[in-house]
User: Which sequence fits this backbone?
C-alpha cells in the first residue's frame, strides 16, 4: 500500500483529535477534585512551560510585536479565555460526547463569522449547510425537552468565543510568530486562572490532580503539534473532515471512562453536523480550485 501525503495527513489529523479528546477526558476526571479556575491555572502552568521551551528553541520569544497586533492579541485573548471557561463549565457538567458534538459545529460557525465580519464570500449552498448544521445543534441540545441540559448553552458559548479567537488570529500580521501568539495566550489563560481561583471554592490540590493535569497539558501540546503537521503535509480539503473523528473518540472514552452512552438524538444531531461540515469543506475546496 502506498502511503500518500493525504493519508499521512489524515492519520495526523485523527491523532490530533484523539489527543484533544484525551485532554478533555482527563480534565473531566480532574474536575472531581478541582474547580474550573484551578484547572485553568495548574494546567496553564504546564502548558506555558512547554510552549515557552519551544518558543525559546525557535528564538521566537524575543520578537517585537506591533501596537496593531497587540490590539488584535487582546481581542484574541478575550476569545480564548471565554472559550476555555465556557467549554470547561460544559465539560464539567455534561457528558463528554455531548460537549464534543456541539463543538464540532465550529467549522460552520467560523464560515458564518468570516462571511459576516470579514466579508468573505459565502454562497447560498454553504449558508444552507450552516443553517442545517445549526439545526443539528438544536437536536442535540433539545431546548424545552426533558433531556435538556442547561450547560449545553455553555458549550454553544464556547463555539462563539472560539470563532472570535480564530477570526482575530486571521487579522494578525505575518511578522508575529504563531508560537509567540500561543505563548502569550497560554500566559494570559494561566494568569486568569490564578486571579479567578479565589472566586470559587478552593480544593486541596493532590499529587494525583497535578499528575492528571500534567498529562492533560502534554496531550494538549501533542494535539496542537499534530494539527500543525497535518496542515503542512496534506490537502486541507482531504484531511479536514477527519477532524470529526473527535466524535468517535469522545463517544468511546465517554463510555469506557464515564459510562455515558449518547442517546439517539445526540447521535442524529452529530451526524447532521458532520455531514454539513464535510459539505462545507467540499464547497470551499471546489471554489478554491
Assistant:
Amino acid at each position: 500500500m502506498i502511503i500518500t501525503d493525504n493519508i499521512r495527513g489524515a492519520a495526523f489529523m485523527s491523532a490530533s483529535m484523539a489527543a484533544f479528546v484525551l485532554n478533555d477526558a482527563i480534565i473531566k476526571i480532574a474536575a472531581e477534585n478541582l474547580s474550573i479556575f484551578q484547572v485553568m491555572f495548574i494546567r496553564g502552568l504546564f502548558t506555558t512551560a512547554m510552549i515557552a521551551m519551544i518558543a525559546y528553541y525557535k528564538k521566537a520569544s524575543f520578537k517585537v510585536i506591533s501596537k496593531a497586533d497587540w490590539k488584535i492579541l487582546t481581542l484574541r485573548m478575550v476569545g480564548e479565555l471565554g472559550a476555555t471557561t465556557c467549554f470547561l463549565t460544559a465539560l464539567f457538567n455534561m457528558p463528554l460526547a455531548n460537549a464534543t458534538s456541539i463543538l464540532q459545529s465550529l467549522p460552520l460557525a467560523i464560515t458564518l463569522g468570516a462571511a459576516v465580519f470579514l466579508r468573505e464570500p459565502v454562497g447560498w449552498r454553504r449558508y444552507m449547510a450552516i443553517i442545517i448544521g445549526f439545526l443539528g445543534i438544536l437536536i442535540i441540545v433539545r431546548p424545552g425537552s426533558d433531556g435538556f441540559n442547561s450547560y449545553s448553552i455553555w458549550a454553544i458559548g464556547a463555539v462563539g468565543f472560539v470563532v472570535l479567537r480564530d477570526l482575530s488570529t486571521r487579522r494578525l500580521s505575518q511578522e508575529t510568530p504563531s508560537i509567540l501568539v500561543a505563548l502569550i495566550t497560554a500566559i494570559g489563560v494561566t494568569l486568569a486562572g490564578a486571579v479567578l481561583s479565589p472566586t470559587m471554592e478552593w480544593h486541596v490540590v493532590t499529587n494525583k490532580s497535578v499528575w492528571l493535569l500534567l498529562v492533560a497539558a502534554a496531550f494538549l501540546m501533542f494535539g496542537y503539534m499534530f494539527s500543525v503537521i497535518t496542515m503542512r503535509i496534506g490537502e486541507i480539503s482531504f484531511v479536514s473532515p477527519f477532524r470529526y473523528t473527535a466524535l468517535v473518540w469522545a463517544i468511546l472514552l465517554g463510555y469506557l471512562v464515564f459510562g455515558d452512552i449518547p442517546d439517539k438524538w445526540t447521535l442524529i444531531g452529530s451526524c447532521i453536523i458532520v455531514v454539513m461540515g464535510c459539505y462545507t469543506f467540499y464547497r470551499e475546496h471546489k471554489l478554491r480550485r
The mean pLDDT is 88. The CA atoms of residues 41 and 194 lie 5 Å apart. The chain has one domain: 5-288.
